[in-house]
Every structure is written in structure tokens, then in C-alpha cells.
Amino acid sequence: MLCKFRKIEVEPYSEDSILALTEQVFKISGYRFQDHELLKTAVTHPSIAAERYASYERLEFLGDAVLGLVVSEMLYTLFPDDSEGLLTKKRIALVRGSKVVEIAQSLNLGNILLMSKGELTSGGISNNSNLENALEALIGAIYVDGGLDSARHFILQHWKPLATNLADTPLQDAKTALQEWAQGHNFAIPTYRLINKSGLEHAPVFTVEVTVNGQRVHATGCKKKYAEIAAAKLMLEKVTKQNEP
């Protein structure tokens, strides 16, 4: 069920607005913040941040790691027979940007963000990047304020139903998953380049290189398509390990 709230109309950092914000966040997350300064930071978009106010960017960094940890732990428990590779695919499917945005939209999270008038009039409260960043920041703030158990409770509440549906949903191929991962991190889409073709005419071997955000890996396959998929899989494994907490 969608949580519907009006955009806070009072002065962003007044006492009244913070009390209203605390109640709205409690209704959204089920968690009541003790540290109001931390809560302000968690919902402050960079467009309105000034020298005396921090934006949510650092909390977003932390929340991304906490989300990855809790989802990994959840999948490890829910799917005891899955291989490491399959668990990795499921984690990517659950923490990719589009999935985080979907949950943020269901919470109407954009309505509690504090942002400049320019950002607001340009559609900032519904911008996918803002929603993804804000939800990760909220997770990071819950972790700092209430510890891992509080963050875990919030994450499981929203991600566990999605995880239980994975068994009935075909996982995306590696190329699609890698593209969504790149877009979710605001990187350019992956590029693939054939760097070698060897072997016999009736049994060729293709070597393809994939590049994402300046990182490159290559893989081989009996068809160019299969080499691209293999390269995408290797890149996913590489970037996933780099982003593990």
C-alpha cells in the first residue's frame, strides 16, 4: 500500500518541520529517529545543502553497503542450496537501481526530501536517481542511529517479499544485469568490442572485451554473443566484489 504524504510546506529546518518529518519517516519506515540532525542530513538533497548543512551523499554511500550486506545475508539464509554464482545474480537483481527506485516510489519517499526550488520544479521528487540515493541514505541513517538490527528490520520488510519471488522469476542474462547495474550507478552503458577471432573456420573462438566505467575484462565463446555474455558475467562478479562491504 502506498504511503501518501504532502510535501512539507514549513521552513525546512524549523523545529516544527523536523517534528513533522520525524513522524512522516516513522510512518514510512517504522523507525523513529533519536538523532534529528542525522535525520535532516538523510533527507537533504545536494541542491539545498550549504556549508552548515550536509547532504545525504555520505549516508547514501554507507546505506548502499548496508543494503548489500543485509540482502546477501538474507539470500544466504533463504536459499541454502544455491551456489555462490546464483546468489550473486539474485543479489544483483534485488539491489539494482531500478528495484531500489521501485521501493522508494512505493513509500512516496520523494515527498519528504528537502531540495531547492529549482530541483523541485524540475521534477526532483520523482527523479529516479534522487529516489535511489535517498532510500540508500535513509538505510544508512537508520544504521547509524539504531544499529544493524534496525536497518535489517527495515530492509527485510521491503526486500524479503521480492526475494521469495525470485524462485518463480527467470533471472536476467548477464548483459542485461550489467547494463542495469551501470545505469543504477549513473555510469555509461557497457560497451563490447571484438578483440580477437581465432580457431578453425568451423569452430571459431571469439574474444570480446567489455568496458564499464573505465574497467575492462574479456572472455571467449564459440559465438560472439556467448563471448559477450561471458564477459558481462565476469564484469558483474568483479564490480560486485569491489562493492562488497
From TrEMBL:
Signal peptide positions (record): none
Positions of the catalytic residues: D64, E136
Domain RNase III, chain residue ranges per copy: 22-147
UniProt: Mg(2+) binding residues: E60, N133, E136
Compartments in which it is found: Cytoplasm
GO cellular component: cytoplasm
Keyword RNA-binding: yes
Major location category of this protein: cytoplasm
Enzyme's top EC category: hydrolase
Cofactor(s), by name: Mg(2+)
Keywords attached to this entry: Cytoplasm, Endonuclease, Hydrolase, Magnesium, Metal-binding, mRNA processing, Nuclease, RNA-binding, rRNA processing, rRNA-binding, tRNA processing
An example molecular function term from Gene Ontology annotations: rRNA binding
CDD domains: DSRM_RNAse_III_family (cd10845), RIBOc (cd00593)
Lineage top rank: taxon: Bacteria
Enzyme Commission number(s) of this protein: 3.1.26.3
Catalytic activity: Endonucleolytic cleavage to 5'-phosphomonoester
Gene3D superfamilies, per the entry: 3.30.160.20, Ribonuclease III domain (1.10.1520.10)
Occurrences of domain DRBM (ranges): 173-241
InterPro entries in the record: dsRBD_dom, RNase_III, RNase_III_dom, RNase_III_sf
Any GO BP: tRNA processing
Family indicated by similarity: Belongs to the ribonuclease III family.
Record function comment: Digests double-stranded RNA. Involved in the processing of primary rRNA transcript to yield the immediate precursors to the large and small rRNAs (23S and 16S). Processes some mRNAs, and tRNAs when they are encoded in the rRNA operon. Processes pre-crRNA and tracrRNA of type II CRISPR loci if present in the organism.
Subunit structure: Homodimer.
Protein name: Ribonuclease 3
Species of provenance: Anaplasma phagocytophilum str. CRT38
